[in-house]
Amino acid sequence: MISQFFVLSQRGDNIVFRDYRGEVQKGSAEIFFRKVKFWKEDGQEEAPPVFNVDGVNYFHVKVVGLLFVATTRVNVSPSLVLELLQRIAHVIKDYLGILNEDSLRKNFVLVYELLDEVIQGGKRMPGTAVTKSVVATEPGGRMREEIFVDIIEKISITFSSSGYILTSEIDGTIQMKSYLSGNPEIRVALNDDLGIGKDGRPTYDYRSSSGSGAVILDDCNFHESVRLDSFDSEKTLSLVPPDGEFTVMNYRMTQEFKPPFRINTLIEEAGALKAEVIIKVRAEFSSSITANTIMVLMPLPKYTSRASFELEPGAVGQTMDFKEANKRLEWGLKKIVGGSEHTLRAKLTFSQESHGNITKESGPVSMTFTIPMYNASRLQVKYLQIAKKSGTYNPYRWVRYVTQANSYVARI
Fold first, then answer.
1. The domain spanning residue 193 has which CATH number?
2. I need a labelling partner for 342 at 20 to 30 A (CA). Which of 19, 94, 179, 208 fits?
């Protein structure tokens, strides 16, 4: 239904932005703000809550000076979308306590998670699943001295029909879970070439950063226990971890990065009431890494009545299904090894002749997955240092990475 969602400040600054379908051109936020700011149509001084520009429908509500906006190219109920925008604003306010530009920027990761939960529902996998202890006790029942640091990244990418990246974004979290006795001080060292803020300009509320490195984060915020004394010079975080699991750092990145998967889709008519769909998925990461729980989804024309499937020879651990109720193709893969390519062919049967373009009535193709020990941003934990209590004190350290699809969409 909704293609894009964004929140703008009174100055037109883009505070929150999410592209779900990849069908609206870049720069829609600027087009919207310019249109609203200089609205002079129909003898009105103020823009109506719903208007159309070059085939794109813009819906907006103003809440405490912030503009909550949704875009779409399809015909949807204006009252439904406007009500959704109001409810999103209320939900965010309930979680943040106060709704303003500053609170949105400081809590951007939580805002994106809330937004995706409201709009995408249960499609995403919980990021904290990887933070569970592997072995929490030694033989004999004694607590094992260990600490877990998990770098969890949720990526959003939109590809054009020709395979070019239209939008890309990473929402990342550094999670920590400590089973250390005595609460020793922890030092976490990140990339030497880490920069904060677009073009290296700092956007967090602590100290400045030169930001000239290769890994540039747009925004980040830290747990209150984190000390940043040596963050600028050494990119090191110091803290005494509180009991239980907590978030050390949240970050967001829109710098261009290499996508883990490429999706190619071809639709060919095979007669008046038939067509064939070919979907290819290629893993662009190292062969030493394996993705799991992959699901590829493709909406089909509403007059599709049946679909039969054909996989590549020797394919195992894959499932195919045609959901007739919502006219959707579903292709599940248990795992994909880096560097490999997988192909699905689907023969479609229609209940009526197509009087339009089948390609335009299908898709976009979306994908969900989890890739352990892989992170697209290249943010790394160089070392995890624990203050020694004695010469024999040497707790176990676990640093783990995982990348998940937040919104992974390819136009057809």
1. 2.60.40.1170
2. 19
